[in-house]
Amino acid sequence: MAQTVKPHExxxxxxxxxxxxxIPAIGLxxxxxxxxxxxxxxxxxxxxxxxxIDTASQYGVQEEVGHALQSAMQAGVERKDLFVTSKLWCTDxxxxxxxxxxxxxxxxxxxxxxxxxxIHWPFLLKDGASRPPKEGxxxxxxxxxxxxxxxxxxxxxxxxxxxxxxxxxxxLEKLLNIAQIMPSVCQMEMHPGWRNDKMLDACxxxxxxxxxxxxxxxxxxxxxxxxxxxxxxxxxxxxxxPGQVLVKWAIQRGTSVIPKSTNPNRIKENVCVFNWxxxxxxxxxxxxxxxxKRVLDGEDLFVNKSSGPFRSVAxxxxxxx
Length: 321
Prior knowledge:
eight-stranded parallel β-sheet
């Protein structure tokens, strides 16, 4: 029996990008989805009405995501109604490697264009770099050279929008000075335990849309917001799940949001946030949770305490935190 496709929630918000394109307010994150990625993405699109899928070459699940996208389209979802994001990994952050990396992503996803292509982290890693990196394995990257190659992808209609992840204000300003095509989106860790207000403000000032990753915090990163007392109290009061409250908080801040789940019920719950609001006082309480800190600080990827160039987490984030 053919599966009926759940239409996109009629009330689903989307946000306008600088380019004029729209990004759906909620996407499915696929980091650490592993072998469950195909089922999760298919469930999200066909059963839960998601139209925005966020992946990356580094996640190692693009082939699985590609299978799910194909199945969803066979079930009747049109490609033009989907918004698919992927990311350029640190080992490919040289001008001559942008195109081959991008082509590989398209091939794995079985697509002929992407909606959004992001620089995953603003650091060049040598192939096969250790974690933590050994001396000489983390390098400065040629931002202008890489961005020019990404701009070509836009000019050739292979990507609708380009953007960045895990940038600092310092790096954003450097990019804005050289960009001919502006970054449409900046994706960053954001949740009530790490509001990232400074970067959010810098992006707003430059009309760059922000996507919040890890919106539920992280149980293995020591910041499990699903069980946070403030979040839990507000969820009970509103008769919603903690996940729904956290997703809604992100949207009310004006950011799109990409909760990751492989649990079909939670995938469906996380998108049911469009016919209610977090009341102003509760929103303020969520926005004033103390002890702000990142869950994903990049330390294991980029910090070499003895030989650098980044000897501390503060170095990675240009001492802006």
